[in-house]
Design a protein that fits this description.
heterodimer; A: alpha+beta; 9 strands; globular; B: 106 residues; 67% helix; 0% strand
Chain lengths: 165, 106
């Protein structure tokens, strides 16, 4: 049954995890703190290294998804993913990003969404919340871009999740 | 769902979410529902694919959903791919995690 129920090379559960509300989760050398009561963990292992953390038994609900967006060959935006994210959440289009692509991203993640941006430990966190889900895009001083999405985490929980990145 | 329907829906999923996302044997009803939801919520997809989602309020059944997706998959292979650009961005960036979960029975 796939790597679905617990396949994880980079999950570190601290010795105090059972007693604490959160556990430390290392994704591509970045540290996150996720709620501890996990029901399933799936490592998809595609080019985007998608990892899904699932809570509860309801199919398709209560999840946190981690995606490395740095390499994405499916959609050509004409620029790096980092430039795309900066352009999406900024006011100008940087690099050679395709304007149509940036506008589509803005329509998706900025318009009609609650948006916040903050910096932490040399990373920039772009948060977007629509009526169903939260999305977080994290950039640093390299070209790396992580996306985290969840259908249940609050903004406060997301801030805690990335607080020690 | 027949094997032929699964093949067409896998083709459609791989077009929008990237090659290797689905194979016919991983396609299931839940993945079909997510694909339908993703496409029907994106207005840009309606325009690009001549796709008219059912009116809000009437929940489509799985047979209807499969029929719609199979039809859309057939249109995909015959149309200029660039017209799906905005639709693809919307669908992929919003529902990547959900389609991945569905294909794995999570």
């Amino acid at each position: 049954m796939l790597k679905s129920i617990l396949l994880m090379c980079s999950l570190l559960i601290s010795t105090s995890a059972i007693a604490s509300e959160n556990i430390k989760f290392i994704y591509e050398n970045a540290e996150f703190h996720i709620p501890a009561n996990i029901s399933a963990l799936a490592s998809v292992g595609d080019e985007q290294n998608v990892i899904i953390v699932k809570y509860g038994d309801t199919a398709g609900q209560n999840f946190i998804g981690f995606t490395d967006m740095t390499k994405d060959s499916n959609i050509d935006f004409g620029c790096s993913t980092k430039q795309l994210i900066i352009s999406t959440f900024g006011t100008t289009i940087t690099g050679h990003c395709n304007q149509e692509g940036v506008l589509a991203m803005r329509a998706n993640f900025v318009e009609n969404s609650h948006v916040e941006t903050w910096s932490i430990n040399n990373h920039t966190v772009h948060y977007s919340r629509n009526k169903e889900k939260s999305f977080v895009f994290i950039t640093d001083d390299t070209d790396k871009v992580f996306k985290i999405d969840s259908d249940f985490l609050t903004l406060k929980q997301i801030k805690a999740l990335v607080a020690r990145i | 769902m027949t094997l032929s329907e699964k093949e067409k829906i896998a083709f459609l999923i791989n077009f929008f979410w990237g090659e290797g996302t689905a194979s016919p044997h991983t396609v299931n009803n839940q993945a079909a529902k997510i694909a339908y939801k993703a496409l029907s919520e994106a207005q840009s997809c309606s325009a690009a694919m001549d796709f008219v989602p059912r009116p809000a309020g009437s929940k489509p059944g799985i047979v209807y959903i499969i029929t719609q997706l199979v039809t859309l998959a057939s249109r995909l292979s015959s149309k200029e791919k660039s017209i799906y650009y905005v639709c693809k961005i919307k669908v992929k960036s919003n529902f990547k995690t959900e389609i991945t979960m569905a294909l794995r029975g999570l």
